[in-house]
Amino acid sequence: MDGISIVIISRGREQLLEELLLSVQKAQEQADVPTEIVLVDSSLENDKETVRLISEKYHAKYFYKDVSVSAKRNYGAKLCQYEVVLFLDSDCLATPGLLKYYAEVYREHPDAGGAAGPLEFVGEDTWFWKVVEKTPYTIFFSTAKWGKTLTWAPTANFSVKKDAFLSIGGFDENFPKNPGGEDVDMGLRLSKGGYTLYSVPEALVYHSKSTWSPVKAMFRRVFHYGAGDMYLIERYPQMGCSCMPRRFLMILCGIGLYLALGYMVNPWFFWGIAAIPLWEMGMTSFCVNYFMKYKGTTFGKQFVVQALLLWNEAGYLWECVRKKKLCNIGKQMIYFKPQMDGVCYQNVVTAVIYSLFLLITYILIMLGA
Q: Which of 41, 67, 65, 66 is nearest to 54 (CA)?
């Protein structure tokens, strides 16, 4: 291999970006191949000059392109001069041996189309972060530790041969503008195209907890992840499995039932509209904590975990409706086999919860009569 080009996309986050560039500079000092940094920025006017000056300080090639995340990465990859392109996110930190380990895997495996390393979250352990780390969304950052080869990996620490990347058309810019599965799609297309993706467990990157700790931003993130799953199931139907009864749909049905009962039986049933989601999340949290004996969490934290999972499902269902893909409403994207056990368990829990809900509703109707 002739060298490694590091592509970083940015939008604001000046302090985190500078910390990343400093860490990459230290990794460059240990690399035994030529390297370069290509920074594609879309910061607002007030931040653009600051980001440009930071890039100059660390000898990064600065380019401005106010387009989607996928389009920025594609643009950066085309500007790279070396054979291997390494994508890093602006809220990450490179470890000193990162580039050295990537260079080693490509020398050891000339057939490699790409390679990925793991990510570990670092930073302040806020109450909400302790909720986030109990969700499934952080698991995927450890995919590079699961086996020798991969079918996809998060782009926050993902390298690929430029020729292979361009041959499949790079990231699909038709995905939603906000992140939501475009890295999964790109990895799966590489694998489908016959390219081998290798794991590099030593090529570690640290991911800041600070960008995953704001409550509003995290709920927005999981909503977009749900929307992205709809596109992935459309393209890879073999990775979708039936997950009925869907929790969010059951909540909507329950709300509809209590609206009808409020009009037809007793206005007190209108209170059920607010009670139904609380009942669903509360009972699911109880089942997870009590029956699965989930360690390191409390009922309150698990309750917020369930709220995030439901909001992710809402993103998926909304995208199905918006794109008129109602046939996909009952499906869920399965990324790895053990996930199936969780889906099956959740289906049983949901069925039990709503059987109890219907029983309680029947009793209330009888009492009202």
A: 41
Do residues 333 and 339 touch, judged by C-beta distance below 8 A? Answer: no
Return the half-sphere exposure (C-beta side, CA atoms, 13 A cut-off) of residue 364: 18
Q: What is the token pair recorded at 247?
A: 């929790």
Measured CA to CA in angstroms, residue 260 lies from 220, 246, 253 at distances of 31, 21, 11
With tokens 């009569």, the residue in question is: 369
Strand 196-199, strand 149-150: pairing: antiparallel
Residue 362, both tokens: 């029947």
Instruction: Write down the pTM of the prediction.
Output: 0.91
Q: What are the pLDDT digits (tens) for 240-274?
A: 888 878 889 889 999 999 899 889 888 888 988 99
Find the helix packing angle between 215-235 and 182-192, rounded to 10°.
Answer: 30
> CA Rg, the chain, in Å?
23
Residue 155 has φ and ψ, to the nearest 5°, of -75, -10
Tell me: the pLDDT tens digits for 29-71?
Answer: 999 999 999 999 999 988 999 999 999 999 999 999 999 899 9
Continuous H helices in 114-214: 127-132, 162-167, 182-192
Give the closest residue to 30 by CA, choosing from 118, 105, 94. 94
Q: Write the CB contacts of 362 (distance below 8 Å, at least 6 apart in sequence).
A: none
For residues 71 and 174, what is the distance between their CA atoms, to the nearest angstrom?
9
b/e code 162-193 from CB counts within 10 Å (16+ = b): bebbeebebbbbebbeebbbbbbbbbbbbbee
Q: Which residue has the tokens 């020798």?
A: 148
CA 277, CA 33: separation in Å to the nearest integer? 55
What gap in Å lies between CA 243 and CA 259, rounded to an integer?
26
**239 touches 232 (CB < 8 A):** yes
Contact between 213 and 128 under an 8 Å Cβ cutoff? The reply is yes
Residue 5, beta-bridge partner list: 36, 85
Spatial contact of 192 and 238, defined as CB atoms under 8 Å apart:
no
Which amino acid type is present at position 182? E
- The CB-side HSE value for 236 (13 A sphere, CA atoms) comes to 20
226, containing H or E segment: helix 215-235
